[in-house]
Amino acid sequence: MIDFIKNALIGGGLALTLPLVISGIKVLDFKASLKLAGIILLFNMVLYWIFGFLLKLANILTFGIGKVILNGVVLDVGSDIVDGIEIDSFKNAVIGALYLGITWTILAWLLV
Q1: Nearest of 50, 106, 88, 82 to residue 70 by alpha carbon
Q2: What is the mean pLDDT of the chain?
Q3: What Å distances lie between residue 73 and 44, 58, 83, 108, CA to CA?
Q4: Cβ neighbours of residue 34 under 8 Å, at least 6 residues apart?
Q5: Which residues make Cβ contacts (< 8 Å) with residue 90, sequence separation at least 6?
Q6: What's the pLDDT score for residue 104?
Q7: What is the mean pLDDT of residues 20-28?
Q8: Which of 28, 33, 59, 96 could form a disulfide with 84 if both were Cys (CB 3.0 to 4.6 A apart)?
Q9: Per-domain residue ranges for the chain?
Q10: Average pLDDT in the 22-41 region?
Q11: CA–CA gap between residue 93 and residue 98 (Å, rounded)
Q12: How far is Cα 51 from Cα 28, in angstroms, rounded to an integer?
């Protein structure tokens, strides 16, 4: 539970920085970015719990690009669910997912 809260706070802060990095993404406030981070965490938890073996196989076969595209889909769907987050195109969602994946991993590793 502590890891979920830590990851949600890291993800919320990083989601708040998305408009600074990608011009096609708009974030209203920290509350919206925190909700988006929670939805991303829940979607990833459920997807990897249900389709774990297939996703690992797809990750190996696509050299990780499939995981970035799946995270882009999760980011795009999460932005549709949360009010206050707007993503202009799927391309921006995939780029945002790549940015979030890299920075989120580095920050989570540094803050352990």
Answers
A1: 50
A2: 84
A3: 11, 15, 17, 22
A4: 8, 9, 11, 12, 15
A5: 72, 76
A6: 82
A7: 89
A8: 28
A9: 2-110
A10: 88
A11: 9
A12: 33
Q: Is the pLDDT at 92 greater than 90, yes or no?
A: yes
| pLDDT band, very low/low/confident/very high, at 47 (cuts 50, 70, 90) | confident
Percentage of the chain lying above the pLDDT 70 cut: 98
Determine the pLDDT at residue 81: 92
Identity (one letter) of the amino acid at 14? L
Could you give the CA distance from residue 32 to residue 74 in angstroms, rounded to a whole number?
A: 15
**Residue (of 76, 110, 103) closest to 13 by Cα position:** 103
**CA 3 distance to own-chain centroid:** 16
Q: Which amino acid is at 18?
A: L
pLDDT at 15 over 90: no
The closest of 103, 33, 108, 46 to 75, measured between CA atoms, is 33
Distances (CA, A) of 71 to 65, 96, 103: 10, 9, 14
Q: Tell me the Ramachandran region of residue 83: left when phi exceeds 0, alpha when psi lies from -120 to 50, beta otherwise.
A: beta
